[in-house]
Amino acid sequence: MPKRAKTELTDAETDTLNRLTRFAANSHLKLFNVKGSLYDRVRTITRLDGACPCKPLERPHCPCREGLKEARTDGQCFCRLLVTDDFLNGKNNGH
Question: I need a labelling partner for 44 at 20 to 30 A (CA). Which of 6, 52, 56, 74 fits?
Fold first, then answer.
């Protein structure tokens, strides 16, 4: 069986990415990941059955309420997966 390319996502991973993309758009946020590729984070979330890739035991769902609150107040969630436009433009929501 041929190995899949690093940029190819499985159906489950694509579903996770689509869910995160919809959530970010509906929340007026962007998906971003400074620590690695977005696809790596999507794979981790999928492998963890939807839990936070950085705090899976504390946050069983990604995106979570805490992450949304962090993004809105700090410009980014703990994992830097959800960010604001201000964060992307080098601003930190006035903080």
Answer: 74
Q: Looking at the whole model, is its pTM more than 0.85?
A: no
Only one residue has tokens 């996770």, namely: 16
Quote the number of domains for the chain. 1
Q: Provide the token pair at 31.
A: 């998906």
Domain encompassing residue 72: 11-88
Q: Which two tokens stand for residue 22?
A: 């919809």
Q: How far apart are CA 75 and CA 60, in angstroms?
A: 22
Q: Using CA atoms, how far apart are residues 13 and 17, in angstroms rounded to an integer?
A: 6
Q: Which residues pair with 73 in a beta bridge?
A: none
d(C-alpha 34, C-alpha 27), whole Å: 20
Residues in the chain: 95
Assess if residue 82 is contained within a domain. Answer: yes
Residue type, 21: T
- Give the SS3 label for residue 31: strand
Q: What is the mean pLDDT of residues 53-74?
A: 95
Answer yes or no: is pLDDT of 61 > 60: yes
